[in-house]
Amino acid sequence: MKSQMFSVSSFGLAKGKELVSEDFAAVKVIDDLCIGIVCDGVGSARAGGKAARRVVNYLMNNFKTRPRSWSIEKSLRHFINNINSILYREGIDEYERPEYVTTLSIVVIDANRLYGANVGDSPIYLYRNSHLQQISFDHVSDEPGMEHVLMQAIGLSESVDPYFFENNLEVGDILLLTSDGLQKVLENREVENRLKFGASTLIKTASKKVNDDLPDDTTAVVIEIKGESKHRKLKKIELPIPRTLKKDEIIDGYRLLKPLIQNDRTWLAEKKGVKYVLKFPPVEAIEDEQYLDLFVKEAWNASRLKAGFFPKAVIPKNRTQRYYVMEYLEGVTLKELIAKKALPVEDAIQLGKFLLHACSFLLKYDLVHGDIKPENIIVLKRHGKRVYKLIDFGSIVEVFSIATRAGTPSYLAPERFTGEPISEQTEIFAIGVTLYESLTKKFPYGEIEPFQTPTFKTPKPVRTYNKAVPAWLESVVMRAIERDKDRRYEVYSEMEYELTHPEKVKPYYPKDISLFEKEPIKVYRWLFIGSFLINILLLILLVR
């Protein structure tokens, strides 16, 4: 597997003539983040192989969805301690002793920074300047003749004390994570000679050396640092940030016409008769690296998210100041449009599909928009039809990041007010509120002010304000804005399916609604039948 920054590979073989290895490994590149894991299930444990698979899957899945407010070190400590406790308790419950036991080696690379941890004796090596060096610590006995005895392993005891380490990486560095089976066959010099060719070549070389009769399960993960991230490269470019910007000022051939936002950092500009939008960093970015980092990420996202859902954006190569350029969209915001008249049903359906498709595209990059609302949707007219564009690259963040109340309060899901991270479900809530407002010109839970802690009372159905909305569409919107996330759509595709298959949509009611409000005809029918039976019974008693 290759990326701009990393070349990664993983491979393993079972010992001897065995068909299944007790080792398990995985490596994954997620944007600028690379995660590599190797676990060697302890052979003397009855569930060592199962433990190895459980640990790798648990750590990989949790790292992909970790809160972005957590440091990598905190994430490593938390997840390792959690899976250790889980496997230890399960061993005691099932076998009355620890049997879900495995070693663990894990590295997480964020840009050029290495974070690692290990428990047990599965080593981690760094190959730099033609030299292979172990950077992990073997948790084995110091007693002569007892060097093979593990002093620590995942699932072996109620608590665990991993060895943690950090370092900077350089382009050309290679990381090797391996089970201890490789050490039993290949010397360091042999590893160094084969490492550049990846995990498969390394393990097959070891197997061939012992005539395909490996003395132990043998697994390796190889990660080569190929280059710097685009984001890091952009940040390193030394460019001035203007403190003030003025009308008719010319920057790299762009003439500034007027500011589009009150902070005077987003400008309508003209170059060779064509209009553009120029976005500059906030003034705070001159002194505060955090502001600069956020702007660089915004510009990077804007330039790489090449799809019809968003305005086209580029970062000019020969800039003399720090900014990026977007196409100018001659349209109106959805907020301006619906201020005059609610959106027609067919247009609202298309809007819903557009937003879900745009969000699904962002999710491929592990991103969410973070501030879906009518103000951030531009409506254009093309060939007599309405076309939508989603704007504001500055709000885009990684999925599952905890950004407290980042976004616009009236469109935030209830769980966002209690510190839960941004997810598909919180974005679906914002889409639902946008559709509700577009169809009714009202907010389902009222307009929420910044820093207000709202109470989410049962919203009125869409058709209360707009009788033209079909019942099935009302059900879709009401489910999207459900306060209880367990009753809300879980993923974009689920909501998109119902928007495109009206006949499959079941009536949706709030949890606290009465049966009479849900199905009045059925209630009347039951009352009639009950009344009829009571009258018959009374008649029988009178006749007697």
From TrEMBL:
Annotated Protein kinase domain residues: 189-504
Chain ranges of the PPM-type phosphatase domain: 7-225
Pfam families: Pkinase (PF00069), PP2C_2 (PF13672)
CDD domains: PP2Cc, STKc_PknB_like
Superkingdom of the source species: Bacteria
Membrane-spanning intervals of the chain: 523-543
Gene3D superfamilies noted in UniProt: PPM-type phosphatase domain, Transferase(Phosphotransferase) domain 1
InterPro entries for this protein: Kinase-like_dom_sf, PPM-type-like_dom_sf, PPM-type_phosphatase-like_dom, Prot_kinase_dom, Ser/Thr_kinase_AS
UniProt-listed SUPFAM superfamilies: PP2C-like, Protein kinase-like (PK-like)
UniProt keyword annotations, A-Z: ATP-binding, Kinase, Membrane, Nucleotide-binding, Transferase, Transmembrane, Transmembrane helix
Keyword hit for ATP-binding: yes
Molecular function (Gene Ontology), one example: ATP binding
Protein name, entry field: Serine/threonine protein phosphatase PrpC
